[in-house]
Design brief:
Elements lengths: L1 H13 L11 E2 L4 E2 L7 E5 L14 E7 L2 E2 L4 H7 L7 H35 L6 H29 L3 H6 L2 H33 L5 H30 L16 H30 L5 H29 L7 H13 L1 H11 L2 H33 L1 H13 L2 H6 L2 H8 L1
Antiparallel strand pairs: 1-2, 3-4, 4-5
């Protein structure tokens, strides 16, 4: 629907000139016809949006300009000539609804798991360190990505604002800007994870606090610069529709795509460098086994995420949007929606430090609960043994630090207890 509205708006812009003779350029609900002189036969290719309905969309349409105007051609005939199959409409709608249900479940699972991971890392003070702060920023970027997807679906599909979005409402464009920002931020924070791990392994004197602010500028500031540039370029040079449709000839789309591809490429370079450094450190006889295991634990999650999240984007980056649409929807939307869940599992739920801290707190709570109930049970007997309690107090006084130096009876009393 938005694709047709975009074609219509482009047609109006290209045929807005006055024609004194012949046939005026027009939009006939489905296709755009340029201006022509009387007796001229105009042949155009089928609109690009027919690729979403059929793989046989590359056909031609013809109309003749007469003295009475354009020859009449029924819109359904145009659609059938461009490969539109009436029987496939229900199947396409069913597939798209299944894709929407799939990525809604994926983002919901990611949202719950990421929120739980942030709560865990915030509650336990022993987990407060630069490495986990970076993990939490990565979690927040994926949370914002999931929220942006939900907001986008509400604005574009559930709320009856299709006409407003197609005409380019500010609210609809703001949602798309926020959506693109969150996607880029998730890639940039994954790059920060690689940069941090590489600096931790390669830099001898590593000031985590100084580097941490640089990482924040990269993770949140980098996407801000590129998304701002894309917004300005779209608003001044290609302000068509709701900015949710990616055209094949839209050069401004590379303002977003190029930084993401560059971050993935840099992560792959860091991936190779980190593996090389790890091999050197593990094989080095000066490094103990415990330290080498620590390096492996730090690198395990990042080295897994870099190829996992990078290959998906690189494979489809240079393929036109209308090609392999179903495969792209499955990989980009459904599988991509579970990325936040994978991040939470690798960086939090499978983290040895997190598991050890949770077990320690659980044992401590269990012990306090047991001791509390045991104290309540023994409370009456303790009240009846006041003499024994007084004796213990006197012995503690006798074993105070002041009397401990001058008397050896403290050890004898303690030993007698």
């Amino acid at each position: 629907m938005n694709e047709i509205a975009l074609e219509k708006e482009l047609c109006k812009n290209s045929t807005s000139g006055n024609v004194t003779s012949g046939c005026q350029g027009m939009w006939d609900i489905i296709a755009c016809w340029p201006s022509a002189s009387v007796g001229e036969v105009v042949t155009i290719t089928c609109p690009a949006y027919f690729s979403y309905f059929s793989n046989l969309h590359k056909g031609n349409l013809s109309k003749t300009c007469t003295a009475d105007g354009w020859t009449v051609m029924h819109p359904m005939d145009i659609a059938l000539n461009c490969g539109y199959n009436l029987n496939s409409t229900n199947d396409d709608e069913k597939f798209l609804s299944q894709v929407m249900i799939g990525y809604t479940i994926g983002h919901s699972v990611s949202l719950v798991s990421l929120t739980s991971a942030i709560v865990i890392l915030c509650i336990f003070r022993k987990l407060h360190c630069t490495r986990n702060y970076i993990h939490m920023h990565l979690f927040v970027s994926f949370i914002l990505k999931a929220v942006a997807v939900f907001i986008k679906d509400v604005v574009l599909y559930e709320v009856e604002e299709v006409d407003n979005c197609s005409s380019g409402s500010i609210g609809c464009k703001a949602v798309m800007v926020f959506f693109q920002y969150c996607i880029m931020a998730s890639f940039f924070w994954l790059l920060v994870e690689g940069l941090y791990l590489h600096a931790l392994l390669a830099v001898s004197f590593f000031s985590e606090r100084k580097y941490f602010w640089a990482y924040i500028l990269i993770g949140w500031g980098g996407p801000t610069i590129f998304i701002t540039a894309w917004t300005i370029a779209k608003s001044y040079y290609n302000d068509v529709g709701c900015w949710d449709i990616i055209e094949n000839n839209d050069m401004f789309w590379w303002i977003i795509k190029t930084p993401i591809l560059a971050s993935i490429l840099m992560n792959f370079i860091l991936f190779i460098c980190i593996i090389r450094i790890l091999r050197q450190k593990i094989n080095c006889p000066d490094i103990g086994r415990s330290e080498s295991n620590q390096y492996l634990r730090l690198a395990k999650s990042t080295l897994l995420l870099i190829p996992l999240f990078g290959i998906n984007y690189i494979v489809f980056a240079f393929i036109p949007e209308h090609m392999k649409t179903e495969l792209r929807l499955i990989f980009d939307l459904i599988l991509g929606s579970f990325q936040g869940f994978v991040v939470a599992v690798l960086y939090c739920f499978l983290n040895g430090e997190v598991q050890a801290e949770i077990k320690r707190k659980w044992r401590r709570w269990h012990l306090q609960r047991y001791m509390g109930s045991d104290t309540k049970y023994q409370h009456p007997s303790m009240a009846n043994s006041s003499n024994n309690f007084t004796t213990q107090i006197s012995m503690l006084t006798r074993c105070s630090p002041k009397t401990r130096r001058g008397s050896s009876s403290c050890r004898e009393d303690v030993s007698s207890i």
